[in-house]
Write a structure and sequence with these properties.
- By secondary structure, this protein is of the alpha+beta class.
- The chain is built from 3 helices and 6 strands.
- The protein has a 6-stranded mixed beta sheet, covered by helices on one side.
- It starts with a strand and ends with a strand.
């Protein structure tokens, strides 16, 4: 089995020791991804943009998503993200889970982890 590791260039990938995405076993596994911004909506959009770039490098897209997990420190902030997520996945919604938990830095309000089919 071939394994391909994809970097987004984030300094944390080197510091922590992880890849933004890994293509293996017919799937693209995207690491938990946060985004910059003042609001949960801004951060959600930014995280999805980073994820989309990694998927493009892997030859995949959000349309190939099979599983997504959302991590939020405050579950009440999830609902404002729903329209953004609906637009991002369109007619191809993946299986999804939302978990309320602390994130690596209190400034982050959403983290998104995703698995897609590899093409």
């Amino acid at each position: 089995m071939t394994i391909t590791r994809i970097s987004s260039g984030s300094p944390f990938e080197e510091k922590i020791g992880y890849s933004r995405a890994v293509v293996a076993g017919g799937f693209v596994h995207v690491a938990g991804t946060v985004g910059q911004g003042d609001t949960v909506e801004d951060q959600c959009r930014a995280a999805l943009a980073t994820i989309t770039q990694a998927l493009e490098k892997a030859g995949s897209s959000l349309a190939d998503a099979v599983r997504v997990t959302y991590y939020l420190p405050d579950r009440h902030e999830f609902e404002p993200c729903w329209p953004i997520l609906r637009e991002a996945f369109g007619d191809n919604p993946p299986a999804a889970t939302m978990v309320e938990c602390a994130l690596i830095d209190p400034k982050y309000r959403i983290e998104i982890e995703l698995t897609t089919l590899a093409r």
